[in-house]
Amino acid sequence: MTTSAMTSQHLHARVARANAARGLRARVVAPAGRSIATARRSAIAVSAARAETDDAASAPASASSRRDVVLGGALALASSALAATTPVAIADEAPTTTETTTTTTRDRKSVVVTGSNSGIGLDGAAKLAARGYDVTLACRTLAKAQAAKASIEATAAANGVVLTGSLTPAECDLASLDSIRAFAASRRAAPLDALVLNAGVEFSGDNTVRRTADGFEITVGVNHLGHFLLTNLLLPDLEAAASASPQSDGTTPRVVVTASEVHDPASPGGNVGLGAGLGDLRGLAENGAAFEMLDGSPYDADKAYKDSKLCNVLFARELQRRLRDAGSVVTVNTFGPGLITRTGLFRAQNPLFVKVFDFATNEIFHVAETVDGGGDCLVRMVTDAELEGVGDVYYNNGIAPGEGKTGHKFERGDVSAEAMDGEKGKALWAYSERLVGLSA
Ligand SMILES: NC(=O)c1ccc[n+]([C@@H]2O[C@H](COP(=O)([O-])OP(=O)(O)OC[C@H]3O[C@@H](n4cnc5c(N)ncnc54)[C@H](OP(=O)(O)O)[C@@H]3O)[C@@H](O)[C@H]2O)c1
């Protein structure tokens, strides 16, 4: 029996058991996404961007043109790619107690957050632990996960925040299928209430093709294929949570994917440089694991990142379809956190460029989100009652002057036309299954 068949059988069996135990019929899912949000933003015409302009969204046209001048200047300053430092963000919220009701064996909800040693993953993980979640910090190395735990605990203590949930450091290198399998096995099928697929890499501006341990182009390899395998291996754990406390509070397990507005070539961030597009997946058809670009085009690191974010959305939609067809109550949703220059995402880019870009977007044009704001988005996707039982939706953190702490509004948005292509989602799934060894 292939691993894929085993996973699928387990899924169906667990769904049946879970539903029988709960006396439920499947109640997933709200229809997919193009229904609510409208385009609210004017374009930011940053020329051939060296930086991701993710979710750098709406601003009045005059501000937009001023931004062009400043950002154009910033681009002109960029000359060499050096490593950038990675500021560490931590929770700054007052603790809240969990509202779950204990009836059987577990008294707290559990969540796995990938890429939780830096950026919005670290911030979100800290906030979830403060809200009573047992958080597994799934990081590239155990040492990074341990450092993240120590950092969250130290900051919480310094700010008088009580972490009512636990923090468990774990190694899960998404650039290694062996590491992912070892991490999944280490959980010993413990019920899992939420899986946050947050880790990500991008190498815009440096078109050297980097590869994972298994030979995949690293951007798609980590951002999509690693998460694809991890999710498939943890589906039984998510299903197990559907029938075990504290899910008796009526909530259902969630898969949350940190995508990005740049998955959409029509978005302000996605329309700079080459747009996301998988074409007919020729790169995979012709080259298998040795692919460089999914559509078979010449390698472009910036497009590879955008493509990987498109894969995130196509994967999430196809996974939700499969779960719904299997009668599962697990929901799958994606979100774009906004442009956040103070995470580690830009570490491979020219630090001078990043500095100027950071200053311009944060201090002059006020189009950037903070790490705190991005972490809040992640937490909302995991915890919001508004999303209970709702799947196949995309939330976007768009610029909305005067709204919230940073002039952003997090609301349901549209995904790109290509992301709505169910047949492409199925084709990507089939290729991905083969590449990660879930099918022959
Ligand atoms: N910042 C933005 O403007 C923005 C906008 C839209 C979407 N996003 C998305 O938000 C997510 C989080 O990014 P961020 O901005 O918070 O950047 P970040 O600080 O660089 O966080 C990325 C995380 O992914 C981890 N990671 C990278 N390669 C990995 C691997 N092989 N195995 C396991 N973990 C790995 C990193 O760990 P290491 O420290 O070990 O590298 C880091 O913890 C990403 O998916 C990104 O695409 C960001």
Please render the helix and strand layout as text.
Layout: H1 3-22, H2 61-77, E1 110-114, H3 119-130, E2 134-139, H4 142-158, E3 167-171, H5 177-186, E4 194-197, H6 218-243, E5 254-258, H7 282-287, H8 301-325, E6 331-336, H9 351-364, H10 371-383, E7 394-399, E8 408-413, H11 422-435
Parallel strand pairs: 1-2, 1-4, 2-3, 4-5, 5-6, 6-7
Antiparallel strand pairs: 7-8
Helix pairs in contact: 1-6, 2-9, 3-10, 5-6, 6-8, 8-11
The structure holds NADP nicotinamide-adenine-dinucleotide phosphate.
In short:
The protein has 440 residues and is α/β, with parallel strands linked by helices.
Helices, by number, come to 11
* Percent of residues in β-strands: 5-15%
Q: Give the strand line-up of the largest sheet.
A: 3-2-1-4-5-6-7-8
CATH superfamily: NAD(P)-binding Rossmann-like Domain
Give every kind of bound small molecule, once each. NADP nicotinamide-adenine-dinucleotide phosphate
User: What structural category characterises the helix and strand content?
Assistant: alpha/beta
Helical residue percent?
A: 25-40%
Distance N to C terminus: 10 Å
Number of domains: 1
Q: What Rg do the Cα atoms give?
A: 20 Å
Q: Major β-sheet, in short?
A: 8 strands, mixed
Give me the CATH architecture, please. Answer: 3-Layer(aba) Sandwich
> What's the rounded overall pLDDT mean?
81
Question: What does this 3D model show about the protein?
Answer:
With 440 residues, the protein is α/β, with parallel strands linked by helices. The chain has a single domain (51-435), classed as NAD(P)-binding Rossmann-like Domain (Rossmann fold, 3-Layer(aba) Sandwich), CATH 3.40.50.720. 40% of the residues lie in helices and 10% in strands. It contains 11 helices and 8 strands. The protein has an 8-stranded mixed β-sheet, sandwiched between helices. Strand 1 (110-114), helix 3 and strand 2 (134-139) form a beta-alpha-beta unit. Helix 1 runs parallel beside helix 6 (218-243) and helix 5 runs parallel beside helix 6. The longest helix is centred in the middle third of the chain and has 26 residues, at 218-243. Mean pLDDT is 81; it is low at 1-104. The protein binds NADP nicotinamide-adenine-dinucleotide phosphate (NAP). Residues 52, 54-55, 114-115, 117-121, 139-140, 144, 173-175, 198-201, 222, 258, 260, 336-337, 339-340, 343-345 line the site of NADP nicotinamide-adenine-dinucleotide phosphate.
